[in-house]
Specification:
alpha/beta, Rossmann fold, 2 domains, two-stranded antiparallel ribbon
Length: about 400
Amino acid sequence: MTRQSRQNAAPGAAKWNILLALASLLIVGAAGEFTIRAFFPVEHLQEIIQYDPTLGWALRPGAVESHVYDIHINSLGMRDEEFPADKAVGTRRILHVGDSIAFGLGVDAQWRYSDYLDRALGDDVEVINAAVPGWGTDQEVLHFEQVADRLRPDIVVLNFTMMNDVINNGLAHCFLQTSRKPRFAVRDDELVLTDAVPAVPPVVTPLYKRALKKSELLVFVKRRLHHLRRPKAEHKPAFPPGFGRDAVVEPLNHWSVFEIDAKPEVVEAWQTTEALIARLDKACRGVGAELIVFPFPVVEADDEWRRWLIESTGTDERRYDFHAPFARLESFCAARGIEYVYPIDEFRAESKRHKLIFENDGHPNRLGHALAAKVLLDYLGARHDLAYSVPAGDREYLYPAH
C-alpha cells in the first residue's frame, strides 16, 4: 500500500475504531444494566414520586415500581389497593399517615403493619395507608386536611419517627435530601407557614437524561461508591445515612433529637412539631376521628444495633438520652387528650430474639411490621372495641417462634 493510500485509509479506519468502541460500550452497558436488574435490583423511588405545589412531593397516581419489591400507587396517590373515597355505611375506617416506615420501604405492601391490621380486623373495617417517603409531620398534616372531608376516617394513626420527624419539621427541605417542602414555625403562639413550596416551572428533560435517570446500573454504582466512603465494621453492613461523623444538615444528624443539650434548631423544631400535632388533632376532631400518635421504635429499641452505630461513628453515648424525647411527646399527648402508643418494651424484648429492622437503613422488616401490627391490634381491641382474628398465614410473623 502506498503512503497516499494509507493516508486515505486512516480516517476511515479511525471512524470504524470509534464506532466499534462505542458499540462495545453500549454492549457492556446493556449487559451491566441487565445484570443489575436481574440479580442486584435497586430501589428507584423517583419513578413513583412527583412534584406537588403544596406538599413538595407526593406519590404519582398509577405509578408502578417492581424491581426490588412491588410498589403500586392507586388512583388517589396512595400505596394501597383501589378503594372508593366515600366510606360505606356501617364501615369503620382507619387511616395511617407517616413517612417511609409506614409506607413500607423495603417490603411488599402486604407485609406492612397497616396491611396486617387490614387482614385481621375484618370486612367492616377499612385500613388505608397514606404514608409517603420523606414526609415530615407538616406534610402529613397538610395532606390530611386535603383528604379528611372525603375519606372521613374514624381513627387516624400518626406514625412518628423520632430520629428524623422533629428535624424534618424544622427544615424547608427533606432532612436527608434537598427536595423542597413547606416549613412552619411558631410565632406568638401561632403556627404559621414561613416557607411555602417554590413554584417549579415546567422543564422539558432531554430524552437521554430521562434514560440515564432510569438506569439501575448508574444508581447501583453511585450507591456502592457512597457506601465505600462510610466506615465499616466486621460482619456489619455500611451504616445508614444520617448517623455519620459529618452532620447531614449542619449542624444536625439523626442523633440530634436525642442530645441532652439540645441545639437551638432542635428546640425550635420541637415547638413546631407539637403545634403540628395539635393542628392534626383538631383536624381529626373536625371530622369525628380520634388521633393515635404511634412512635415506631428504631434506634431506641435495638441495643446491639445502636451500640454498633455509636461505635462506628465515633459518637459519645453520654451526650444522648434515648428516653427523654418520647417522654416529652407522651406528656404533650396526655395534656391534650391524644392517644399515645409507644411499643418500646415489646420491641426491645423481641429485638433480642429476632432482627426487626434492615440494618443498612433502619427501616422495619417483615417481623418489625408484624410486631407493630400486633401491638396496635391489642390496643385497638382494648381501647376501641375492635375485634380481630389473625389469619393463619400471618400467625408465624405476628407470633414468631422464639
